[in-house]
Amino acid sequence: MKFVFVLTTILLALLLDVAAGDRQYKALNFGDSMTDYIMYQPDMSPLQNAFSVCSWVRSLNTNDFPTWMSYAVSGSTNEIFVSADGYYNLIFSSHIADLRSHFSGLARNWYHYCMTWSYSSRTRRIYLNGKQIDSTTTSSGRRLKTGGYLVLGNDQNGHTPGPSGFYSAFIFGGELYKLNLFSKELSSSEVLEMSRDKCTETELTYGDVRSIKWEEILQRSRNGNVREIDSGCEDVIIRRQMEVKLNETLEELRNSKQLLNETRAELSQEKEEKDLCRTKLATSEENLNTTMIKVEEALEELERKKEDLIRITTSLNQTQTELDQVRKLLEKANNTPPDCPLNSTITSYWDLLYSEDYFGDVISSEKLEVLYKSVEKLEYFVGLRVTEGMIQFMKHFHDGTDKCPNSTE
After folding, report:
1. Beta bridge partners of 111
2. Are 50 and 269 in contact (CB under 8 A)?
3. β partners of residue 118
């Protein structure tokens, strides 16, 4: 719907634009009497050193010399004189150049005509439908004279304004479209481009070089039966303008669509990147939560190990205290001679373990009963094998008394 609205707006704008200036697309139809003409005195000074007269012409009259343009000044009644049948192509009142053979078969058909000249080239050239059909060298030092009258529709013999100077043999009685006078000698390629299409707007591109404009001629006063008619170009030009505008609009829409697609692709890419970032962020957050849980578990484990370490440290301290006490008692026992009913080789009640009843054997409950009489707290040694090392340890580190249990002291 939006696209249709845009196109409708463009079409309405074009129609309004063409309607505002549609006179330039009108042709002029000249009647068959000597009173049917246009005459005025234009400013020809821009054309003195170079000019080109170009027009679309349609000959409808069977007169001898149907003349569609005559420019005359005092002393030169045919400064420019052009007839529709190709007989007269005068410049500076000379160089008639009968070219009727090129115009045969063109009656009642539109054709494009151009006459070009410049002071520098001194050459007058005639073009018919874009093709050069004649060239003539003009007099040295000759320029176009100014101050004369321009007549469309007849010849002005004797430079007499009005029908008193006209002849019936020169009545145009045809149609003109886009008659323009340029202040330059158009090149063959420029003439060819202008002649390709009656409905082209090439002439409009020449700006001020187009000194006498068709749209200005249409505004001049007319005599007799000279009327505007449809050139057939208005619809063509409107259609072409619409096509150009539509193509421009379509190109803009295509560019806009491409830009929108590129923007959509960029937004999609940005969304993908943001989604990826969100995924990575969620993964990182999940990993962080997992790590935090593991850290908390590790801290709890450390707390438990710390508590275990405290308990172990406390136990070790207690054990160290007990060992210190044992060390002190053993030192005291070693410094005090034993008073025991043992043989001469026995110096401590722990030497009993060297006897055959104990040494190399395992302490049993029965043997423990015998030892109870000599050593206190021996229940800790049930199941131990009596060895040299064990005896020496008990002699030096046990916290028992150094007196024999049967001692009288």
Report:
1. 57
2. no
3. 50
- Looking at residue 76, its pLDDT comes to 87
Contact 113, 54 (CB under 8 A): yes
Encoded tokens for 388: 């040299």
Question: What would the two tokens of residue 119 be?
Answer: 């002071």
> Within its chain, how far is the Cα of 19 from the centroid?
38
| pTM of the model as a whole | 0.60
Query: In this structure, what are the phi and psi dihedrals at residue 38, rounded to the nearest 5 degrees?
Result: -125, 135
Non-local (6+) Cβ contacts of 401 within 8 A are 329, 333, 376
CA 97 to chain centre: 61
Q: Which residues pair with 70 in a beta bridge?
A: 81, 151
| Rg (the chain; Cα; Å) | 66
- Residue found under tokens 């340890």: 393
404 CB-side CA count, 13 A = 16
DSSP 86: S
- What pLDDT is recorded for position 185? 98
Does the pLDDT of residue 105 top 90, yes or no? no
Q: How far apart are the first and last CA of the chain?
A: 127
Share of the chain residues as helix, strand and coil, in percent rounded to the nearest 5: 45, 20, 35
